[in-house]
What does this fold into?
Amino acid sequence: MRWLRFDGKMTRGLALVPLWLLLGLFAFGPSGCKPKYPNCEGDNDCPANTTGKEWCVNGQCQLCRPGSNDCGAGRACVSGRCQALPGFCNDNSQCPTGTCQNNVCVSCKTDASCPGGGRCEAGKCIADTRKLCKNSDECAEDEDCVSGRCTKVGKGSRYTAAQSGPCNLETIYFGYNEFDLSNSNTSTVDKNAECLKKAAGRSVTLVGHTDPRGTPEYNLALSDKRTQAVRQRMRNLGVDESQMYPVPRGELDSSGTDEDSFTRDRRVEVNWR
It folds into this structure.
């Protein structure tokens, strides 16, 4: 066995050191010691646990890595821990105020935004239990056949005579193939909203119409979009949703024969119930 002396001589109080021990100190010095958990220098310093593998992030063992898929669907890595993403869903039962679309809870605005033929009520899609129909004669007297379903509309749009009310309501007109409100018709909607807010306990029908151009199916959908646009605007202005009953009629009541008369067909009538 070989021995080494420091400075070529024995130092007082210092024992002779074996060569193999010195080599080991240089090879496995302080850098060869594993950091104390949760400190780490690499992923291998972090143990696996009941929740899965831990990762070395910025010198600390953590349960997940930011921006990774370590947490799985619907969860994100926040401060080294997996947390549920707000609004994430797998089905409609997880969305108390809307529907689950592309794993995100979304509040509906119209019946058309509800999958599977549901109805939109207070921002949530519900199953449509209304009676199926082909025309209004198959519905009760206070119902009308709207998009193939019997819908309560006061006296029904078969009875188009407007009822009297505490203030005058005005008809809203639209441009060709349009359903969004514009500067020209928004003021009319706003006047109707102010009128209706003063009439507690009264309600109106929003009867949507189109000119005869286009297919019946397309025109029915277009008239529905027009009534929904008016209802949404009035609701934003403080009118209770229960006071408004949309009744899309499509081209059924159109009478125009030229461009001038077509402009009178493209409208939403607001009638007292």
In short: The CA atoms of residues 172 and 226 lie 9 Å apart. Residues 43-84 form one domain. The chain has four helices and 18 strands.
